[in-house]
Amino acid sequence: FIAFAKDGNTLKIAMSDPTNFEALEFARRQTGLQIVPHFTTENNFRKALGQYKRNIRAAFDKVISENIKKASPEEDLLKAAETMPVIKILDTILEYAVAEKASDVHIETYAEEVIIRFRIDGILRDIIKLPCGIETALVARIKILSNLKIDEHRVPQDGRYKFIIDEEAVALRISIIPSFYGENVVLRLLPESARPLSLEELGLMGNNLRIIKNNMLKPHGMILVTGPTGCGKTTTLYSILNILNTMTVKICTIEDPIEYGIKRVSQIQVNYKTGLTFALGLRALMRH
Fold this sequence. Notes:
The protein is 35% helix and 28% strand.
């Protein structure tokens, strides 16, 4: 529960389960006040808890620096990637990225340092600098988790995996490219609890809202959505799909990658290795 207001001898608390009498009694004994429970949704409860993570920067720096000292570069990449310090460094970076609501994590290798950057609200910012040598084990760890070849350093690789933080599943999309000083990694974070929003919730209003509503109901044509990373292109398209997704229509998509699963929509993942490109998928859908 979260205490959110105090009025004289009364303490108001928010709970996702106001019938939890054991928690109510605990709150009464701890505070010596009369407890008034208020119901809140699980989602809003998690959002409120997130506000208490605002000052985790110091803890983040401490965990990273402690594990950097323990981590030692090893010739055996597989062995190095499975050591506790490397695992802890990656987990801590991802936890901090989720807490800061970052859309992307960039791991960039240069001659004298490794820079970790987060994209927050569409803007990249430096978060921490790591010493050279740690990046090989860190990248190998990411490759192992996303089933990529750890001994391949000359060609770009793409992968994905999921991790759970605070009971919330976050899907990671991974892009690794070779650079002059080592491999660079970009991790796109996609919280799976994210749901398609209404157009109004996205902030569309007035004439812009009318334009989209009129055009999305036309029987044919194209809607082009453009903009920088993290501005909401995919979210907007998924929201439109969600509005059009009724029992009277069949919807098929071709995506690279599929970021969110939508019920009753046939979603096709582009796969260049098997020759399933956007063009081939579109031709198949026309016949389908």
